[in-house]
Amino acid sequence: MNAPSKPGSKADRDVLRQDMTVAGCTLADIAIEMRTRFRMRPREAWRHAHGWTLQQAADRITQVSTTRPGESVAADASLVGKWEKWPGPSSRRPSLPVLFAMAEAFACGVEDLLDLDDRRGLPEADLRLLIHRPPTVEPPTTPSSIVAPPELAGTDLVRFAADESATWAQWAEASNVGDIALEQLMAETRALASDYLTSDPVPLFVRTRALRDRVFALLEGHQYPRQSADLYVAAGYLCGLLAWMSSDLGQLRDADTQGRTAWLCAELAGHNDLRAWVLSTRSKVAFWDGRLREAINFARHGATYQTTGSVAVLLSCQEADAWSELGAQDEALAALSRVEEARAAMSGEDEIGGIFSCQPARQENYAAAAQLRVGRPAEALRSADKALTLLAVQPVRAYGTEAQIHISQAAAHLATGEAEGAIEALAPVLALPPDHRLAPVARRLSELCVGIGRPFTSGSTAVGLRQAIEEFCVDSAPRHLALSPGEGSA
After folding, report:
1. CA–CA separation, 38 vs 40, rounded Å?
2. Which of 42, 419, 480, 487 is 20 to 30 A off residue 111, Cα-Cα?
3. Interatomic CA distance for residues 259 and 268, integer angstroms
4. For the whole model, what pTM was predicted?
5. What is 290-348 written as a DSSP string?
6. Which of helix, strand or coil describes residue 175?
């Protein structure tokens, strides 16, 4: 028998927040109730009023602080926990920039984050600044906001004009992001794109969304044009990654929205590799949404850009995929022949990698699926077997790609009457944990059900396999997402 949760547990907080929200209470009302009912410090109460974890609060505090010149805060979960406990033991006093950033993040006043113990513990100078600080920080002065008094003339007017230019130069020289920070953002983007191949999609979606929000916040500030372009590149890849994830979770309309934003970022950055990868992502979304002509057009448009990595390979694969789904054998096989040409023409490495790369195993996976649809099961089986061999030597094995290869292998066996081979090929797919059962995998398995029956001599075997596939599709990542109460999406 489970022990009852202690007062103030996550379950208690969630119930209280939900009940008060339904009753029309404000965040301030919820924070006050959290403080009094669960004996929380004010900063902790405001965090729980939002329903945030320590890390989520840290990400938001860091993000909003970037809009305050000279007051940026690098927060993490441990620091937020120590700021909340202050002035108690094992705590750390939050500085004024931290308090202002917390207030903005929590959408409250600084005074709401402080009780009597806090005020007693703050230095007197800090208390005076809190009392006299204006509610907002004025933006840096620019020439457009300076009006020369009409009485100025002669040398005074010339001197004033020089002061205007100096003021503008001071503003133009300032930046809210440095080259090292940009390098770190791209490194984190690469890590997310790589982790997506092997990780649960929903937690990774949350991490990607948080990083995208950090980049968006930086773009709302001021930086050199080349730094803005780099930020747009990062934002474009992150929105593209969110589009890919949204599609894999069965949310095609949301994936389309992310894709359009990613395309805007690519255009603003003037970055051909990003343009091509965004069009590849949009082709993928259109394919699974049944917009096959659009999928072909996106893939062909992407192929018009001069790129360095493997995106041209994937674009040709995607064109072949869509043509084969339309039943256009000649066009599908022609696109497959261009895949090899694109592989031979590669002139460099992928900038991001991970999901934004097309390794040979992934290429063979597309070939197997296309060959199946145009009625060439023997060729499809050879491509699937080759894909699994290539995948075995890759340092990172993408579970989604591997599952689709096995499905193609099973479909090829069914098409040639090899029932036992089909069952063996599907075994590792059906063993996938629910969080790894992405929408494309579930859909391809459902399509496979149509071909189950004829090759089997035992009716019970066919029924059992159909039942296993149905259970797989019900207990899948998109299904879990649809049933999850959630706390908002990107």
Report:
1. 6
2. 487
3. 14
4. 0.68
5. T-HHHHHHHHHHHTTS--SSSHHHHHHHHHHHHHHHTT-HHHHHHHHHHHHHHHHT--S
6. coil
CA–CA separation, 103 vs 100, rounded Å? Answer: 5
Residue with tokens 């091509």: 276
Evaluated on CA atoms 46, 49, 54, 56, the torsion sign reads: negative
**Residue that has been written with the tokens 């970022």 in this structure:** 265
What lies within 8 Å, CB to CB, of 159 at 6+ separation is: none
pLDDT of 487 over the 50 cut = no
Residue 193 makes CB contacts below 8 A (sequence gap 6+) with 237, 241, 352, 353, 354, 355, 356
Mean per-residue pLDDT for 482-487? Answer: 60
- Is the peptide bond between 87 and the residue preceding it cis, with omega within 30 degrees of 0? yes
Contact 76, 55 (CB under 8 A): yes
Q: Residue 416, class by beta-carbon neighbours within 10 Å (0-12 exposed, 13-18 middle, 19+ buried)?
A: middle
Using DSSP, state whether 356 is helix, strand or coil. strand
Q: Give the integer Cα–Cα distance in Å for 293 and 310.
A: 23
Q: What is the pLDDT of residues 322-369, one digit of tens each?
A: 999 999 999 999 999 999 999 999 989 999 999 999 999 999 999 999
Q: Which of 24, 80, 88 is nearest to 54 (CA)?
A: 80
The number of C-alpha atoms within 13 Å of 30 and in the hemisphere containing its C-beta is: 26
- Of 81-90, 173-182, 218-227, 458-467, the range with the lowest mean pLDDT is 458-467
Q: Do 254 and 489 meet the contact criterion of CB atoms below 8 Å apart?
A: yes
CATH of 176-358, one of 3.40.50.10090, 1.20.120.80, 1.25.40.10, 3.30.420.40: 1.25.40.10
Amino acid symbol at 7? P
With helix as H, strand as E and coil as C, how does 181-199 read? HHHHHHHHHHHHHHHCCCC
Helix 439-449 and helix 225-248: axis angle, to 10°? 30
What is the per-residue pLDDT across 84-132, written as a single tens digit (0 to 9) for each? 999 988 889 998 888 988 998 998 888 899 988 888 888 877 777 776 5
DSSP 359-408: -HHHHHHHHHHHHHHTT-HHHHHHHHHHHHHHHHTSSS--HHHHHHHHHH
Kindly give, in sequence order, each residue whose CB lies less than 8 Å from that of residue 263, ignoring residues fewer than 6 positions away.
236, 275, 278, 279, 282
Could you give the CA distance from residue 90 to residue 161 in angstroms, rounded to a whole number? 55
Q: How many residues does the chain have?
A: 490
Beta-carbon neighbour count of residue 443 at 10 Å? 16
User: Considering Cα of 460, then 462, then 468, then 470, what sign does the dihedral take?
Assistant: negative
**In sequence order, what are the residues at sequence separation of 6 or more whose Cβ sits closer than 8 angstroms to the Cβ of residue 128?**
none
